[in-house]
Amino acid sequence: MALTEKQLQNLKPREGVDRYRVCDGRGLYVVVMASGRKFWSARVTKGGKTRWVSLGEYPEVSLKEAREKRYTLTQKAKDRRVYFEEIAEAWYTDRYAPTVGKRTAKGTRSLLDRFILPDLGGMNVAEIEPQDIYRLCQKIQSDSIHTGRLVRSVVSRIFQHAIAAGLCKWNPASQVTGALLPPPPGEHYAVIKTAGEAASVLRSIDLYDKNDIVRIGLLLLAYTFVRPDEMRLARWSEIDLEAGTWNIPAERMKMKRPHVVPLSTQAVALFRQLKELTGHPEICFFFPPFGKVLSRPRFSETMRKLGLKEGWKMTPHGFRGMASTLLNEHGFPPDVIERQLAHVESNAVRAAYNQAEYMEERRRMMNWWGDFLDGLRGIEKK
């Protein structure tokens, strides 16, 4: 989307980011530095190779002058082509990012910047062929089969947007699906299926003595089976330890709806230990050595160090599957389990009704689950 002078003037540094780019279209960007200074940069593609060219600092070089420099630089005065990057930026900014969570949007932004735009960004959207997309995805799949398939999916959605806008007639990415490597068999979140396996995982975590904050976090993932980021970013203001309730706000939930987690006595005790360890008034998983919240990879890295990823291919997300499998096996109603997993009903009225209807059943289930896990860990019930 083309920038205006007012938008340029209002661009500010982003906290924790050294620099970021904002697209004006046709390969022209303004780079906003952490210091607040703004520089013009143009992406130029020639002979299939892409390079960045600095066009000066704003406001010394005005918006109009920057566009003229870009125009002269590429010598495309009569070129009416629509570049893929323009459509990609418009799709991401206007159609995609506002409809998904921040984490999902950030992941897709990374795919655009690392793989898609450097390869396809400078091409005329109407001239891109299936072979172009296949070569890109094939190259990526040599390192990661899953990432290559994700890239194809993102490119396909951008082309759907371009077709709707009347900028091209067909979607070449749709012709590539069958030619890509398929996902490896069983490439899903690992699921612990037996009580014996669950006991081994929990006892491995109990033996971890390198960092008590991480150890407690992994145990809380098992006792509450929330998603890892819902746990990692928890705030004390959300948690009522006296009532045994954790209210996770909508903005941190995958489905963007608030979620209530009844806390067992074991989960409450773990949260109390955590509070004593960190001492932070707001952030539950505050990591004192670095003065910030626990990093996203920390849970996963710790499980790898414990050998859980090799032994059972267990991930932090896998506690959800473990709970679902074992709770179903012990006869708890599937609807109650699904509500506790925050698998939201498509019918909003029914979802609201179910949350109220199942709360007491969910609390009983979570207390049973806490006792059950204690038993697997060899902790006697008091």
Quick rundown:
The chain has 382 residues and is an alpha+beta fold.
Structural commentary:
With 382 residues, the chain is α+β, with helices and mostly antiparallel strands. The protein has 3 domains: 1-80, Integrase, DNA-binding domain (Double Stranded RNA Binding Domain), CATH 3.30.160; 81-187, DNA polymerase, domain 1, CATH 1.10.150; 195-377, Intergrase catalytic core (hpI Integrase, Chain A), CATH 1.10.443.10. It is 49% helix and 12% strand. The chain has 15 helices and 9 strands. The strands form 3 sheets. A 4-stranded antiparallel β-sheet has the order 1-2-3-4. The protein has a 3-stranded antiparallel β-sheet with strand order 5-6-7. Strands 8-9 form a two-stranded antiparallel sheet. β2 and β3 form a beta hairpin. α4 packs across α6 (145-164) and α8 runs antiparallel to α10. The radius of gyration is 25 Å and the shape is elongated. It starts with a helix and ends in a 5-residue tail after the last helix. The relative contact order is 0.07.
